[in-house]
Design goal:
Arc Repressor Mutant, subunit A; mainly alpha
Length: 204
């Protein structure tokens, strides 16, 4: 299975596009803090963002697409600035973990438990996809994506990205179910204990 080539872009956008997307990101974020995700309608998002329906559909297919875009923006925002500066590609692939756990821990009370099981499942599914995209880009930027494919490695880069992303979401789910009782640093250590042996065993 291959991942769609939807890159987490850091390229500057037209200011109007940037502003519209920011308004929509803020709208869905504020609504998620108020009610279950599956009860949020596109009409409510438009009303909160003060954006027309036609403008919304120029940028996004539906609210799930908007949620995915919001998570990409969040990932870029919370990643530590030195994440891509690390020389070890395994460390770069796991660099998102601690910043994300810290961000979620900081905002853990804002949702007030209103997401519900279905809403959380949707959020985690979208997060898994965004993280897998990020990991593939990390491999591509380091040259390991091309190298792994040329060597016909037993573990494809796409499968490796899905494994790391899915493991993070699994640990995140467990962490939330236990009330975030452990610190973000401890959650990060648990995630790393599960993925780093695999990452470091893959031939480079």
């Amino acid at each position: 299975m291959t991942l769609p080539d939807r890159r987490i872009s850091q390229q500057p956008m037209d200011r109007r596009v940037q502003r519209t997307r920011a308004l929509l990101h803020e709208a869905i974020g504020s609504l998620i803090r108020e009610k279950a995700y599956d009860r949020i309608t596109v009409a409510e998002i438009l009303d909160r963002a003060k954006v027309s329906r036609s403008t919304f559909y120029i940028h996004f297919r539906d609210k799930d697409d908007l949620l995915t875009s919001s998570m990409r923006a969040l990932l870029l925002e919370v990643l530590s600035s030195d994440g891509n500066a690390r020389s070890d590609v395994s460390e770069r692939m796991a660099a998102f973990s601690l910043p994300l756990f810290a961000h979620i821990h900081e905002h853990r009370h804002t949702a007030k438990g209103r997401l519900g099981e279905r809403g959380r499942a949707v959020l985690h599914q979208q997060l898994r996809g965004v993280l897998a995209e990020w990991i593939i880009q990390t491999l591509d930027a380091s040259g390991h994506l091309r190298l792994s494919r040329s060597r016909r490695s037993a573990v494809s880069p796409e499968l490796l990205a899905q494994h790391v992303a899915s493991t993070f979401v699994l640990v995140l789910h467990w962490w939330i179910d236990h009330g975030g009782a452990t610190t973000p640093e401890e959650a990060d250590k648990l995630f790393r204990a599960l993925v780093m042996p695999v990452l470091r065993s893959i031939p480079r």
